[in-house]
Amino acid sequence: MKVLLDECVTKSIKSHLADLEVHTVSEMGWSGVKNGNLMSLCVQNQFDVLLTIDKNMVYQQNFEKYPVTVAVFNSSTSKLEELIFFIPSFLKQLSFLEKNRVYVIEKPQKTL
């Protein structure tokens, strides 16, 4: 599974996704690329998933045009300490996520 980390996601999360092929926007030389063009680059470079915390992505794109899955961590911060809580949910759902769609990944609820 080939995953692209959006600019708003800390690259430190890569070590927590070790079983996946993970690249960052900056590693790919795509810093500053707008979302529509970024989606096209994902398709051209055969990425399976774009991982972001940009909740506006849900409303900005026509995802039917792009055979890529967009996963949005529903986080208020890009800090690793927060994002790692989303990883188990993301990994659990990953094999069920469909292309041409956007998914908002929630942090698991704490149990008492």
Overall description:
- Helices cover 22% and strands 20% of the residues.
- It is globular.
- The chain has one domain.
- The chain has 4 helices and 5 strands.
- It has helices spanning 35-44, 57-60, 80-83, 87-93; strands at residues 2-5, 21-24, 49-52, 69-73, 101-105.
- Helix 2 (57-60) links the parallel strand 3 and strand 4.
- By secondary structure, the chain is of the alpha/beta class.
- It has a 5-stranded parallel sheet, with no helix packed on it.
- The mean pLDDT is 91.
Key descriptive features of the protein:
single chain; 112 residues; alpha/beta; five-stranded parallel β-sheet; 4 helices; globular
What's the SSE blueprint?
Layout: E1 2-5, E2 21-24, H1 35-44, E3 49-52, H2 57-60, E4 69-73, H3 80-83, H4 87-93, E5 101-105
Parallel strand pairs: 1-2, 1-3, 3-4, 4-5
* Spatial shape: globular
Oligomeric state, counting identical vs distinct chains: single chain
Number of domains: 1
Radius of gyration: 13 Å
Largest sheet at a glance? 5 strands, parallel
Distance between the termini: 34 Å
| Low-confidence blocks of residues | none
User: Helix coverage percent of residues?
Assistant: 10-25%
Beta content: 15-25%
